[in-house]
Design a protein that fits this description.
The protein is an alpha/beta fold. The protein contains 14 helices and 15 strands. Helix 3 packs across helix 4 (about 140-155), helix 5 packs parallel to helix 7 (about 210-220) and helix 12 crosses helix 13. The longest helix has 16 residues, at about 110-125.
Length: about 400
C-alpha cells in the first residue's frame, strides 16, 4: 500500500490524551500523521515522522478527526420552505409538517431519493463529515421504509430504522394498529438493512409504553436502540433510553434533575446527543450542555439534518451554536462532534486520530481548531481524507 505523510501541522487533534498534551483532545503541536491504506499508521511530532511514499504539506494549519454525524434524516424528497418561512415570519402555518415530507417521499422514485441523499452526503463531506448515521421515517409504509433503508445502507453502515417517527397518516384513527405494524411486518422487512432502531418518544408521537414496545421488538430483531427523547417537552424518553441501554438519547432539551442524573450514571452506555440545529431552526429552548457535562454525562453533537426542523448538514455550524448558546467550550464542542459522535455510534475506529483508526481527517484553513467557533459561517475545511483517500 502507498503511505502518505501529512506534515507541518500546527495543531493536530487526536482525541487521545495519551498521544498529546493530556487533554481530552490529545493535542499535538508541530505534528505529522502517516496514513497507510485506509488506516492511521503513525501520529506524533513532525520532526520524528517516519518516511512515507508521498507527502502533503499542511503549511502550518490544523488537522482534526473527520466529524461523526450520529443523527440525520437524509432519505427524503421535497422541502418545507413555506413552513420555515412562516415560522420565521411569525405567521401561523397549517401545513402537515412531517406528513408533507412523507407524501413527497412516497411519490419519489428510488433514483430521486438516492440522488438527494448523495447530494447531502457530498455537502456534508465538504464540511468535514466522514462518518454519518441516517434514518428512515419518511415512508411509514412497509415498502417505503424498507426502500429508504436499502438506499441508505448502500452508502453508510450506520442505518437506523425509524418507522416510529410519527403515526402514519394511514393509521391516524388506529395508532395501536400502527405500533403493531412497526413491531411486526415493517420490522421484519427493515431489519436486514439497519443496525439501529429508533422511536420519537414525545407527545403527539409515541408514548412511553408504545416506545418501549417498539424498541424491545427492535432489540429482539438484533437492532440496537436509540431514542428521540425529551425534545419538545418533559417526558419518559431519557429514562427509557437509559433503562434499555440505548446507545443514545437524542435532543435532551427538556430534562429534569433525575434525567440528568440518569444520563450521568449511564455515561459509558447512553450518550446524550444534542442537536442545536433544531433549536436554531425552530427558535426553541437550547439544550443545556453545560449542565450535562458538569454532571458527568457523555455528550455528542450532531446536525439532525432533515427538511423540517434542522435543514443543515454543517457540523462546524453546530459547533459554533453549541459554544455560543449551549455553554460548551470550543474544545468540548469539537470533542462532542467527533469522539462524542463515535461514542453515540459505539465506534472506536472513527472520531480519533490514533494508529489503527480509520484514516478520516479534515484540514482546516486555520492554525487552530478553535477557529471553528471563532469564525462561524466561514468555510474553514480545505481538505478531507476519508478512509485514507483525499475526498475534498
Amino acid at each position: 500500500m502507498t503511505t502518505t505523510a501529512i506534515t507541518n501541522i500546527a495543531g493536530l487533534v487526536t482525541n487521545d490524551p495519551a498521544l498529546g498534551d493530556g487533554s481530552p483532545l490529545g493535542l499535538i503541536e508541530n505534528a505529522a500523521v502517516v496514513i497507510d491504506g485506509d488506516k492511521i499508521a503513525w501520529v506524533g511530532p513532525a520532526a520524528q515522522a517516519p518516511a512515507a511514499d508521498t507527502a502533503f504539506d499542511a503549511t502550518g494549519r490544523a488537522v482534526i478527526p473527520g466529524f461523526v454525524d450520529s443523527h440525520s434524516h437524509l432519505v427524503f424528497a421535497g422541502d418545507r420552505t413555506a413552513e420555515f418561512n412562516a415560522r420565521m415570519s411569525g405567521r401561523s402555518y397549517s401545513a402537515g409538517g412531517i406528513r408533507t415530507t412523507v407524501a413527497a417521499t412516497r411519490a419519489a422514485t428510488d433514483a430521486e431519493l438516492e440522488a438527494n441523499l448523495l447530494r447531502h452526503l457530498d455537502e456534508a463531506r465538504r464540511q468535514g463529515t466522514t462518518t454519518f448515521e441516517t434514518k428512515s421515517g419518511y415512508g411509514l409504509t412497509v415498502a417505503d421504509e424498507a426502500r429508504a433503508l436499502r438506499i441508505a445502507a448502500a452508502h453508510t453502515e450506520e442505518v437506523t430504522y425509524l418507522g416510529a417517527h410519527i403515526v402514519s397518516p394511514d393509521y391516524a384513527e388506529d395508532p395501536a394498529g400502527y405500533v403493531d405494524l412497526v413491531t411486526g411486518e415493517m420490522l421484519t422487512a427493515c431489519a436486514p438493512y439497519a443496525r439501529w432502531v429508533d422511536v420519537f418518544c414525545e407527545k403527539g408521537a409515541f408514548d412511553g409504553d408504545q416506545a418501549r414496545a417498539i424498541l424491545t421488538a427492535g432489540a429482539a430483531a438484533g437492532l440496537i436502540p436509540r431514542v428521540h427523547a425529551n425534545q419538545l417537552s418533559y417526558g419518559p424518553g431519557v429514562q427509557l433510553a437509559v433503562e434499555l441501554e440505548a446507545a443514545s438519547a437524542d435532543h435532551c432539551t427538556h430534562l429534569t434533575d433525575a434525567d440528568v442524573d440518569a444520563l450521568a450514571q449511564a455515561a459509558d452506555t447512553t450518550v446524550a446527543t444534542l442537536l442545536p440545529g433544531a433549536e436554531f431552526s425552530t427558535r426553541a429552548q437550547w439544550p443545556d450542555a453545560r449542565r450535562l457535562i458538569d454532571a458527568g454525562a457523555t455528550v455528542a453533537l450532531s446536525t439532525d439534518c432533515n427538511p423540517g426542523s434542522s435543514y443543515t448538514s454543517s457540523m462546524p455550524f453546530c459547533i459554533a451554536l453549541a459554544v455560543r448558546d449551549m455553554r460548551m467550550t470550543p474544545d468540548e464542542a469539537l470533542w462532542s462532534a467527533t469522539a462524542g459522535g463515535a461514542r453515540a455510534l459505539r465506534r472506536s475506529d472513527v472520531g480519533v486520530v490514533t494508529p489503527g483508526a480509520r484514516a478520516d481527517l479534515a484540514l482546516l484553513d486555520a492554525p487552530s481548531h478553535v477557529h471553528l467557533a471563532y469564525r462561524p459561517g466561514v468555510p474553514l475545511v480545505s481538505a478531507v481524507w476519508q478512509r485514507g483517500v483525499r475526498a475534498v
